[in-house]
Amino acid sequence: MIDMEERYDCLIVGGGAAGIGMASVLQDLQVNRFAVLERNEVGSSFLSWPEEMKFITPSFTSNAYGMMDLNAVARNTSPAFTLGTEHPSGSEYAAYLQAIADYKELPVMTGVDVTSIVPDDGGFRLETSQGTLCAAFVIWAAGEFQYPKLESFPGAEYGIHNSQVMSWAELQGEQFIVVGGYESGVDAAIQLSKLGKNVTVIDRHDRGLDKGSSDPSVELSPYTKDRLRIAMETGRIEFLSDFDVKWIEESDDKGFIVYCENEHGTSHLLKTDHPPIMATGFHNSANTIENLIGHSTGGELQLTSCDESTATPGLFIVGPGVQHGGLKLCFIYKFRQRFAVVAHAIGSRLGLDLTPLDPYRQDGMYLDDLSCCGENCAC
């Protein structure tokens, strides 16, 4: 139950990978008055994945050797060990997060929807579906999966965003168009081809199966490339690379027309009976509190070196939306490295003894320099 009378040291908004991971670090620091506010249930974004979708980063049990499972969010835990699988599904990973919350007895409050955050009296006032809460610090960990981009171009509303598909087996039809050729789009094409469907993938880039960038934020993962190689052998997947979709409209016979062109003026007019699959990415959830966070001209969140809003001191951001020096921290193994940075900043201001952090740094969860991530940081 929510204690409306208590003023919390810190409130975490979001009970996904970032929220549960951040809560674990605060507990390690012995922050006593904190809570996680989740509007649905722990791991709800992962529970919304299409049931066929798997993690592209492999989980592997290696804690005994001082190396963390790539998909772990808390010390001495491993999704590979807990779940017994290398590439967990969304529902499996949500079970892992819930297991952490239960075992560590984290103060998670489910069914609490945060409607506004207001700076107030040296801290924050949070208006929620369960009443008003106050805290000295707020950590925004709401993720992205529940904020799909649905307005990428005229007629995008005719499509179905991949995050709105519960199972690819439920879709009726033989011919599909997928807009977007990164991980979600290629995964959709692979899953549909397994069902005997023919798929055309329209991608504004030419990622392909060849080696490209070493950054997995922009390059298909080896796991996806392996699956794509097998799927391409069926002849059911076709790529239109370096093409931008300009518009979608309904056709006279209840189908859909997709128009795309490239920078050389070459165009294609494609017809499909099924609404196009929109693998067009997600908005940063922090856009819902954009009045408290500055943005660069490129849309990047304006944060300090400790991931604190430059516009609103005391408000911290964790999760896939954080970038530093052009580096996107959009995978769990990347953004968990920032948990200690945020925890150190908050713990210092709360006057906590932070020396217990030192022995934990060997396992990769904590950085040697907790004030790092300037422009040239490669953490």
SSE arrangement:
Layout: E1 7-13, H1 17-28, E2 34-38, H2 44-47, H3 79-83, H4 90-103, E3 108-110, E4 114-120, E5 123-128, E6 131-140, E7 160-161, E8 175-179, H5 183-194, E9 198-203, H6 222-232, E10 237-241, E11 244-250, E12 256-261, E13 267-272, E14 277-278, E15 315-317, E16 323-324, E17 327-328, H7 332-335, H8 339-349
Helix pairs in contact: 1-8, 5-6
Structural class comes to alpha/beta
Large-scale geometry: globular
- CA-atom Rg in angstroms: 22 Å
User: Could you tell me the number of beta strands?
Assistant: 17
Number of helices: 8
What is the percentage of strand-forming residues? 15-25%
Between the first and last Cα atoms, what is the distance in angstroms?
A: 38 Å
User: pLDDT average, as an integer?
Assistant: 89
Explain what the structure shows.
The chain has 379 residues and is an alpha/beta fold. It has helices at residues 17-28, 44-47, 79-83, 90-103, 183-194, 222-232, 332-335, 339-349; strands at 7-13, 34-38, 108-110, 114-120, 123-128, 131-140, 160-161, 175-179, 198-203, 237-241, 244-250, 256-261, 267-272, 277-278, 315-317, 323-324, 327-328. It is built from 8 helices and 17 strands. The strands form 4 sheets. Strands 1, 2, 3, 4, 5, 6 and 15 form a 7-stranded mixed β-sheet that branches.
How would you briefly describe this protein structure?
The protein is an alpha/beta fold and 379 residues long. It contains eight helices and 17 strands. The chain starts with 6 loop residues before the first strand and ends in a 30-residue tail after the last helix.
